[in-house]
C-alpha cells in the first residue's frame, strides 16, 4: 500500500507593520510652551521696566557684595551649622527612653515648627524689650535673698546690655537657627529610625557604647536618608535669609537691593537682581547637593547593589584562591 506524502507548505507571515502611537496632546503642549517662552523672551527684551543697564550696574556694587557675603552666605552657613548640631541633639532626645527628655524635645519641635519664621524673626528682633541687661550668675538670687531676709542680694558674675548682644544679626541668627533645629530634628530622627534595628543589636553585642553606636553605625547609614532633605533645608535657609529685612539686618543682600531700589525709585529692576542672585546661589548649592547624595548613596539602588555584589564575589574568589594556594 502506497502512502502519499502530503507536504504542507506554510505561507510566510507578512512583516509586522508597527504603527507608532500618536500623541497629539504632547505636541499641543510643546506648541503652547514654545509660544509662552517666546512671549517671555519678548517681554525681557522689549520692556523698558527691566532697565537692564541700571540693574547690572547696581547689582555688583560693594554694598551689595558685602550683603551677599556677610549677610546671606554667612547667615546661611551659621544658621545651618547651629541648626544641624542642635537638631541632632533634639532628635536623640526624641528617641530617648526618658519621658521628660522626649516631652521637652516634642515641645521644642512643636513650638518652632508651628510659628512662622517671619513672625519668629520679628519677635527675636524685639526681644530686647524683655530684658535691658543679660546677666550670668545664680538664678533667682534676689528672690532667694528676700526669702532669707537679705535685701538686694546680687550673685551675678557678669552681664551685658541686651542692645550689645541682641544685635540685628544675632537676633536673626537665633531665630533662623532655632527654627531650623526643629526641622532638622525630625529629619535626623527619621534617618536614625530608617536604619535596620539589627545593626544596632549587632553593635551592642560587640560592646559598643551608645555614643560609639551613633557615631560609627547609625549615623553613617542614616546619612543616606538625612542628606537629601538637609540639602533642601539649606536651600530654603538661603532663601529665608531675605526675611531678615524685617528684623532688620542691614548687612544682607535683599536689604541692600531693596534700599537701592527705593532710593533710586527703580524697585522692580532691583527685585529682578535679587532673583538673579538667589538663582545663582541656589544653583551652586544644587550642584553640591548632587555630589553629596551620590557619595552617601553608594551601595544603594540597583547599580550600587550590583557593584557591591561584584566586589563581594571578587573578594570571595580572591580569598578562595589564596586558601587553595596555601593548602
UniProtKB/TrEMBL annotation:
<keyword id="KW-0812">Transmembrane</keyword>
<feature type="transmembrane region" description="Helical">
    <location>
        <begin position="105"/>
        <end position="131"/>
    </location>
</feature>
<feature type="transmembrane region" description="Helical">
    <location>
        <begin position="27"/>
        <end position="47"/>
    </location>
</feature>
<feature type="transmembrane region" description="Helical">
    <location>
        <begin position="271"/>
        <end position="292"/>
    </location>
</feature>
<protein>
    <submittedName>
        <fullName>Amino acid ABC transporter permease</fullName>
    </submittedName>
</protein>
<feature type="transmembrane region" description="Helical">
    <location>
        <begin position="165"/>
        <end position="185"/>
    </location>
</feature>
<feature type="domain" description="ABC transmembrane type-1">
    <location>
        <begin position="69"/>
        <end position="289"/>
    </location>
</feature>
<dbReference type="InterPro" id="IPR000515">
    <property type="entry name" value="MetI-like"/>
</dbReference>
<dbReference type="GO" id="GO:0055085">
    <property type="term" value="P:transmembrane transport"/>
</dbReference>
<dbReference type="InterPro" id="IPR043429">
    <property type="entry name" value="ArtM/GltK/GlnP/TcyL/YhdX-like"/>
</dbReference>
<keyword id="KW-0813">Transport</keyword>
<feature type="transmembrane region" description="Helical">
    <location>
        <begin position="67"/>
        <end position="93"/>
    </location>
</feature>
<dbReference type="Pfam" id="PF00528">
    <property type="entry name" value="BPD_transp_1"/>
</dbReference>
<dbReference type="InterPro" id="IPR035906">
    <property type="entry name" value="MetI-like_sf"/>
</dbReference>
<keyword id="KW-0029">Amino-acid transport</keyword>
<dbReference type="GO" id="GO:0005886">
    <property type="term" value="C:plasma membrane"/>
</dbReference>
<keyword id="KW-1133">Transmembrane helix</keyword>
<dbReference type="GO" id="GO:0006865">
    <property type="term" value="P:amino acid transport"/>
</dbReference>
<comment type="similarity">
    <text>Belongs to the binding-protein-dependent transport system permease family.</text>
</comment>
<keyword id="KW-0472">Membrane</keyword>
Amino acid at each position: 500500500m502506497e502512502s502519499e506524502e502530503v507536504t504542507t507548505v506554510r505561507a510566510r507571515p507578512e512583516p509586522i507593520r508597527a504603527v507608532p502611537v500618536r500623541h497629539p496632546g504632547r505636541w499641543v503642549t510643546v506648541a503652547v510652551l514654545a509660544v509662552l517662552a517666546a512671549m517671555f523672551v519678548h517681554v525681557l527684551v522689549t520692556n523698558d521696566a527691566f532697565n537692564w543697564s541700571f540693574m547690572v550696574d547696581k547689582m555688583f556694587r560693594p554694598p551689595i557684595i558685602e550683603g551677599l557675603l556677610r549677610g546671606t552666605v554667612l547667615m546661611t552657613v551659621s544658621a545651618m551649622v547651629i541648626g544641624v548640631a542642635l537638631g541632632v541633639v533634639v532628635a536623640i532626645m526624641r528617641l530617648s527612653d526618658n519621658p521628660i527628655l522626649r516631652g521637652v524635645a516634642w515641645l521644642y519641635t512643636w513650638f518652632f515648627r508651628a510659628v512662622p519664621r517671619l513672625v519668629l524673626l520679628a519677635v527675636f528682633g524685639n526681644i530686647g524689650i524683655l530684658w535691658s541687661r543679660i546677666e550670668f550668675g545664680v538664678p533667682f538670687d534676689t528672690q532667694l535673698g528676700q526669702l532669707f531676709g537679705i535685701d538686694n542680694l546680687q550673685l551675678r558674675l557678669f552681664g551685658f546690655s541686651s542692645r550689645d548682644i541682641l544685635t540685628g544679626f544675632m537676633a536673626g541668627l537665633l531665630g533662623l537657627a532655632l527654627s531650623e533645629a526643629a526641622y532638622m530634628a525630625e529629619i535626623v530622627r527619621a534617618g536614625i529610625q530608617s536604619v535596620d534595628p539589627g545593626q544596632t543589636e549587632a553593635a551592642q553585642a560587640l560592646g559598643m557604647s551608645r555614643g560609639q553606636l551613633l557615631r560609627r553605625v547609625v549615623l553613617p547609614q542614616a546619612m543616606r536618608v538625612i542628606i537629601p532633605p538637609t540639602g533642601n533645608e539649606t536651600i530654603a535657609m538661603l532663601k529665608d535669609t531675605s526675611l531678615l529685612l524685617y528684623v532688620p539686618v542691614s548687612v544682607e543682600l535683599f536689604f541692600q537691593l531693596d534700599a537701592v531700589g527705593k532710593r533710586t525709585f527703580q524697585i522692580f529692576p532691583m527685585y529682578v537682581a535679587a532673583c538673579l542672585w538667589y538663582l545663582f546661589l541656589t544653583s551652586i548649592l544644587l550642584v553640591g547637593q548632587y555630589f553629596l547624595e551620590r557619595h552617601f548613596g553608594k551601595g544603594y539602588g540597583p547599580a550600587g547593589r550590583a557593584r557591591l555584589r561584584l566586589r563581594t564575589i571578587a573578594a570571595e574568589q580572591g580569598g578562595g584562591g589564596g586558601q587553595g594556594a596555601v593548602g
